[in-house]
Amino acid sequence: MNCVRKHILKSKTYYLQVLEDSMILSDHKNMLNPKYIIQFNFETRVMWKVSEQDELCSFGIYYVNRIKWFDSDHNSLNLLKIYLSPKVFFGNISIFYDSGSIIGSGASSKVCLVKVKKSILEYAAKCISKKYLLQKKSNDRMNRLQQEIQILQKIDHPHFVKLHEIYQGENSYYLVTDYLSGDTLYNYIKTFPDDQIPSNQIREAIKIILTALNYLEINNIIHRDIKLENILLQKQNDITSLKIIDFGLAIYTQPQQKISICGTPGYIAPEILKNSNADEYFTHKCDIFSAGVIFYKLLTKKTLFRAQNTMEIMEQNKQCQVNYQDIEYKLQKEAVSLLKSMLDPNPKTRYSAAQCLEHPYFSCKLENINILQEILDKATGFSGLSQIKEQKDTHSIGQESQAAQVKRCNPTSYKIRAEQRKRTKSPRKYAEFQFYCPSFCQMNSFESLSSKGSSSYSNKVSRIENLINDKLDSVIEEDDKFQQNIKQVCSN
Questions:
Q1: Residue 131 annotated as binding site
Q2: From the candidates 225, 246, 287, 344, which is the catalytic residue?
Q3: Which residues fall within 8 angstroms of residue 149, CB to CB, at 6 or more apart?
Q4: Are residues 210 and 350 in the same domain?
Q5: What's the predicted TM-score (pTM) here?
Q6: pLDDT per position as a tens digit, 387-430
Q7: Which of 79, 236, 246, 293 is deepest in the core (most CB within 10 A)?
Q8: Are 190 and 162 members of one domain?
């Protein structure tokens, strides 16, 4: 593009060209011997002026501690602004945006909703205080901001928030990104009743997160703060619009960075908290563990590490002793298998994002035990049978304890279910639902087995377990065929 540098006696025309890492201005059309060469880096700053009609009329560059202004037409300058975004810092953010409400805040920054002037377009602007960055004598905070910007400039993926422009004011830096109108994943899952998040939504959400982490691994980036609050829905109540935000702790894998404690308690990979080896470095596996904590929350609606204060949470996080027995009996086996692979305390054997995406969980037919049990309750005359809460009872012994142990639930819960089953007018009705309700299939099989004596108990247990596994594998997914089968069973 052409631009004009005005002088007192005579104005001069310059030819401008934007390259990958710099911008050059020359008074020769062939761009030989350019007078101004502006490298794109953290120090580069471009200023703007607008006319009385609110159209761009000039841009300025810092050269030898002075701002030198160049005039051009609005269309050319607007195109230049697009090409420079987000490679350099702009000044005068108030020229382009109207400030709105604060939609988020943290220790070092706040996020404001901004609206493009004379437009309906809205963006989110992360405002970082210069005072906060310069409080410490070291350059750690400034270097972290610089690295966050560099990483955001590099990322181009639909499941990450996109950086559009960066501005530098007198007191703050501004990172202008997508505005995500939906809620955080943390708040979204709270809208569902206990244990009622649809299986297909859980699988879709964790697949999106793992796909995003696989992209980071390919590009040698570690996020280091994957958590429910840092995953937002771009559209309200649309699980397929998930995007990961906040790269304030993100780093490149090269050069390698030694392990230091960072992240959010409850989501931190245990090797970071233990840090027993001074020569250990951050790997992509720490993000996989954090994603595993999110997967646990989606599957169970419970927090993995629960305690009264942060120190206790950190200690549980460090020890990483996950009790899978409490959830195995009520979750799909493929989901539990993937969960174990993601929460593996050993980073060397913990799955990578690519390995997770190849897991059978993403190709198997989904089970929806909650819906099937509700149908069973109605057919047998009970209400709320699937809502029976487990209670601890150290005095429960005998056959109920043996059956409950194989079923992987506590004896009292098993005994309650067994007694209620006996009171039904038609106990045989349960047999008709064995194919559709695996948990009740196990309960009936073990009770009938215990009533026949214990001589052939061990042989029959293995045979029944195999039968149950076969039935579990064949549970029908929530599609048209599933609905037809349910209607047929209810009519019978």
A1: no
A2: 225
A3: 42, 86, 163, 166, 175
A4: yes
A5: 0.72
A6: 444 433 333 334 444 444 444 455 555 555 555 555 444 443 33
A7: 293
A8: no
